[in-house]
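User: Please predict structures.

Assistant: First:
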Amino acid sequence: MLGAIASAASTSCIWSFSEVTEDTRQAVFLSCFIVLGCGSFLYGHFATLTTLHGQRTIRGVAELPRTDEPDEEIAAQAPLLEPHASLVSVRCSWLDGCRFWLVFCIVAGHAVSFPTTYLAGSQYWLRPALVWSATFHMPGLSLISGMCSRGPLNQARAIRILTRVLLPFIFARMIGWAFYCRLYGACGFNPFADGSVEWYLVSLLHWRAAIAILGALRAPILMTFALSLGLISGYFVYAGEPMGPQRTMAFFPFFVAGYLIDPKAARRTLNQCMWARPLAVTLLVLVLAFAFFIPGIVRHLELGGRGDFNNDYVAARVDPENPSRYMAPPSCGLEYVLAAAHRLPRYFLSFGMIAAVMVALPRLDGVNGGMPWWACAGQHTMYPYLLHPYVLNLQQVLLMRNQAWAVWSLGAFSKGGWYWLVPIALSFLFMRLATFDIVRLCFAPVIEPDWAAKYLVNDSVATRAKSTIKLGTEIPLPIKI
């Protein structure tokens, strides 16, 4: 136990709105503005990007499919390695490229998080950048997973999910247990524990199963249901429960939004807006600048804060200004009842940041019509995503065994803190190396264990699944990291 838990709640529950904290009042007013002031505007624009029952919808008016341009909805469901040129340029250059940079943000964020365990948040110069990237990297991955889950959950896709999601989760848990048992002596094994990066694989399984049923709902109803589930889950589903249901429900609205977005309508809308990319870049830069120069923004949005997608509304959190101390939010009274008001603005900001990132990132093809290298690497981001925790644990061991070096790196930027630029650069190099063919050849048996299908899948099911695709083509993965 690092320290005593300091409760933020008073001994008596507060039921007067005039007595709640200023942060809660601001969150309530901002949530009301989002719901009332922006609701109709957002719904009108969201309708231009969604697909209802197979028809494109432009502001609620059904539009017949056009035959004079390639169907990018089909491209979003197509195999990532489909040789058709139009599918490659749409699917790989955009979605896979975005996936590469989002996973890079996750890896780099984990690589430079060591000082947050020992330093007060205000003393770590990269803290604002960590908070900034957290507003879009995991939500963005969830949204892209939804965009790649638009196809029906047939037997071919079920086999793909078995070999590319469920089995990698099982193998990652077993290998992780052996690794931490050997390195730290922590040999207790709980395959259902919530934690580490594998939680996302479990969430993918839950989301894909849920959308197979909920996908029949109309887009506004489905999106409202997902947002309601994400907001309410913080009251009743506690962080740390087996299989991570809190995170699954909290990130579900992003998956649903991706599922509902019609890639063709989105691409057409973006191409018609010449100001979209400059506006997106401006938004990203402004939010980053605000995070660096307005400390209050970081305090509201940092990991573990009220409304954080990774925690429930009553979970104890580490005091960012005193890492040896814990704080617990109120578990009763009006502060507790209004806790969801802290999460709704996070959804609003994250959706905006995801849109800005996906618009700002290059969507052009490479030389001679080929794919950019980051888009090719983006097809295999499962490898750096699952492998990077082991590399970073070795970094932590190295720092702990060289404490003088570790203390030096905890200084201000000019007094050793600049060292954390090195892990960022190395994270980029690791992302590139982990997607090379030779690396994938070594780790494919546990990260992409397609070999297991012939031993686990019923022969009749496998035969029917193969009949749904052309011979020699890859079974499309509906939810791929």
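Second:
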Amino acid sequence: MPNDATTAIRRLRVHSGLAAGPGGFLEMLRPYRGLDMGVVTDLAACVVGVLPLLRNPTVDRELMNDLWGTLHWGRHWGLHPRGMLRSNNLITEADQATLDAWLTAMGWAIAMTLDGQDRASAVGELTDLGLDCGEA
């Protein structure tokens, strides 16, 4: 799990599929082999690890691309009715609900941080889902 912003950014690139490496979030969805709590916990830690950078007056374009792309493709592939997992009947309704909760909580953390909210407000939903948010 990342313990600094540099490591979080590097791992986030793997999760977004834009850098090679094991255990990426989008890699978990394609080909789909089920949800992996370890992968999602690592992604959540990466999101929390970069939250301080989202408080800056300007935000790095590649960082935003990694965040946006991971959430967008996760939703599209796993939750959209014509996405590859649902259209091929590869994901259960229970896994869809879990994936939706995870993606929503990460999106909330990003949006609340960009909006200037405090860390506790930003990561509350992640914590409620049992995702370790560390001390970022």
